[in-house]
Every structure is written in C-alpha cells, then in structure tokens.
Amino acid sequence: MSSSSTHIESFIVPTVVVMFCFWTASSSSVVESLPGFGSLPFRLETGYVGVDYDNDVQLFYYFVESEGNPGKDPLLLWLTGGPGCSGISGLLYEIGPLRFVKAVYNGTIPSLVPNPYSWTKVSSIIFVDAPVGTGFSYAKNPEGYETGDMTYARHCHDFLKKWLLDHPRFIGHSVYVAGDSYSGMIVPLIAQYILQESDDLMHEAPINLKGYLLGNPATDPDSDESSKLTFAYHGALIPKDLYECTDLVNHAHILEPKCIGFSPQRSGLLEDGRKHQEEIPELRCRSYVNVLCHVYVNDPIVQESLHVRKICRLCGFGPGLDVTEAYPTPMMLPALGDQDMVIPYLGTQSWIESMDLPVIEEWRPWKVDDEVAGYVRSYENHLTFATVKGGGHTAPEYLPKSCFLMFRRWISGESI
After folding, report:
1. Does residue 415 carry a pLDDT above 80?
2. Which one of 26, 340, 378, 402 is the catalytic residue?
3. CA-to-CA separations, 163 to 26, 286, 401, in angstroms, rounded
4. Residue among 50, 152, 37, 153 nearest 96 (CA)
5. Given 155, 251, 253, 393, the catalytic residue
6. 167 with 124: CB under 8 angstroms?
7. pLDDT top residue among 96 and 263
8. Which residues are within 8 A (CB) of 303 and not within 5 positions of it... i.e. 6 or more apart?
9. Which class for 260: exposed (0-12), middle (13-18), buried (19 or more C-beta within 10 A)?
10. Confidence band of 162 (pLDDT split at 50, 70, 90)
11. CA–CA dist 215, 264 (Å, integer)
C-alpha cells in the first residue's frame, strides 16, 4: 500500500453546479443500536445512494464516523472483494468496530463485540455493497444488474461524489480508497476516475485523494494463477508434480484447517439456521462465522435497525452480473498476508517487478511490539509493497493488530 503525492485543493463550489445534481435522492439514517450488541459507542449511518439514471441503481452503504477526530481524520472508501461480497464483510470481519462472537448458533440473534483494532480509531470509513446486486444494493430494472469492472468502478466513483455532496463536512478531508481480493481490479480504476477529474473546477465534490490500499489483491490473472504452484512448493506443501493435492489445503490460509465453505443456497439454510445442518461448517472452522453473519443480516429485526429495503446477499449478485470488461489497470499498491494461496504474494510481487520500477528502499522487516510483523519494499511513484507475516487472504481478519498499526502508520505518513 502507498500514499499518493496527488493533492486536490479545496475550493468554494458555485451554486450553479446544482444543475449537475444526481437523479435519485439519497437516503440515510443514523443507527443508534444493533441487535446482538445494544447501544453503539460510535456513530453508524446507513443509507442508499442512486448512481445510475437509466436503471436506478441503489448502492447501500454503512458509514462509521471516526472514533478519533472525525473533523480532521481521513475518509476511507472500502470495497470488499469477491467480486460481489457485501461491505458488511469488511465491517464485521476485517476493519470495522464490531466482530461476531464465535459461538454455536442457538436460534437467537448472534452477538457482537467491539474490535479494539478497528480502523475507525483513526479514520471515518464508508463500507459499500458493490457492485449492484451485492448485499443490500439493488436495481429497480433487471438491466441494471448487467455490469462489469468499468461500470462497477464508475458506480463507486459516482457514489463517492454523491455521498460527499450529502456530507459536505467531509469535503476537503484526505480520502483513501481501499479493498481486498477482487477489489484489486476496481480500486485503481476508481482512483483513476478521481484523478481524471481533479483539474476540473466545475465538479461539485472535489475529492482530495491521497492514496489507495489493496489487500491481497487480484492484479494480473496470469501472475496470480501461475504463482500458486510456486507458492505451494516453496511452502513445503507439495512436491512439484503433486499440485492437485492442494485441494486438501485451506487456500485462504494454508496453516489453518481445510473446512467446507458456506453457501446458503447450497445448504438450504433458513434464517433460523436450522435446516440442513450437515452442510454447515464446524465451529472450529473460521467459515462458521459466515453462518452467523448470514443469519444476522437476514434477520428482520436487524434489517429494520439498518433501514434496508432488500434481502442481503453476502457474496452474490442479482441476475446477469458480468465482470469481464477489459480495461488497462493502473498501478496497484498492495499489502498481503503471506499465508494466502488464493492470491499468493509471489504473484503480486512478480507483477510489480514486471513494471521495472526503480527500488527506493530494499526489503526490510517491519515490526509490531518489537517483533517482525512482515517485510516491506518501496518503489518509485509512491508504491509500497508490504507483507503481513502469518496473514491469510483477508489479512485484517487474521491479524487485526498488525494490519491496524500498518494502516495507522501509513495514513500518518510514518515509516511502516
């Protein structure tokens, strides 16, 4: 991950720019308490933003105001990967202020506890359900679900502009765009859209982009796929001629047990969590939390608290999603858990090296509590490549403290 040197100056927007307003009114509500937790010690807002005139696409978001200094702290736009995994994954699994209590589901609403390493300690964060059809986001017309990478990125860029217009107190704040996994294909496109508009003073919501962050990102498919064999071999998982045996390995974190995944559609799990229990992962499995999350977000009481309009798809889409649009991907700025075989760090490293960027600082360890937390290398163009020692595919889920400290140092301009 890295911080961009680009700075977009703040200015007073002429009132005539109102003619460029969006076609669908945004809606937002403050959530003061959540089932399974109670009164919230932080400010949570949820809502919808319309981003597509023809199809009336409505993107749902969760906004958590910084618990530090919201008047000055940066604003982070977070996209979960997939493609098509809900922003609630980032909110409740990775970098948000709450996490699930991992306990056997007993028919009641799953419980939540505070996350002491939430990135909201130092930044305000918008978690978006994107692309359309993900989570609580929806389109009123079926054609609205036909999307691809460029449309996905454009919707998110339009979302951010519209959101800032509705929250003018954040205009001028340092802005970062972040995400993990498949979002590695989308976040740089959003940054490019922002930079293309940065010199146009008629745009009504100037975005003070400072940088973007990618966790275990998809970059180039060839590099990502070809690196899996090398990663498995050097990880002492297999001899070279037994790559098929990696089916027995947990690709998200090679040192954790291999467990069945969780799919509500395949298991036939109802909202009460009691149907086809044989298809549900064991409690010892990290994927068991997916069961709790599915039950939680589809509970009518929870949905009423969140002020949503549609049923939630945690990692799924409406009809017709197509993510095959080709587009030249700008430079990516990654931080990777080094135990991930879904998108191994070796593939990302190889992809970066193919760009022949001059190295500013060679590999060195970075530390947490005087212990090595990973390794970091810096390149020209403000690109920093960092590994998180022991991290899985979604590194903050596995090592929240290390990832939080990395993020805090980065946005503060400190050396990682």
Report:
1. yes
2. 340
3. 8, 34, 30
4. 37
5. 393
6. no
7. 96
8. 297, 312
9. middle
10. very high
11. 26
User: Catalytic site residue 338?
Assistant: no
CA-CA distance, 379 to 360, in Å (whole number)?
A: 5
Tallying the residues shown for the chain, one arrives at 416
Dihedral of alpha carbons 396, 402, 408, 410, sign: negative
Q: Is 340 a catalytic residue?
A: yes
**Residues 179, 253, 92, CA angle at the centre, nearest 5°?**
45
What is the phi/psi pair of residue 208, to 5°?
A: -85, 70
**For residues 105-127, b (16+ Cβ closer than 10 Å) or e, as one string?**
beeebbbbeebebbbbbbbbbbb
For residue range 167-214, list pLDDT tens digits in order: 999 999 999 999 988 888 889 899 989 988 865 555 555 789 999 998
Q: Which fold has domain 6-215?
A: Rossmann fold (3.40.50)
Which of 181, 305, 350, 378 is labelled catalytic?
181
For the cut 70, the answer to whether the pLDDT of residue 380 exceeds it is yes
Is position 73 annotated as part of the catalytic site?
no
How far apart CA 46 and CA 51 sit, in angstroms, is: 16
In whole angstroms, give the CA distance from residue 363 to residue 21.
Answer: 48
User: What's this model's pTM, rounded to 2 decimal places?
Assistant: 0.81
Q: List the structure tokens of 88.
A: 């609630």
For residue 196, which of 23, 15, 8 has the smallest C-alpha distance?
Answer: 8
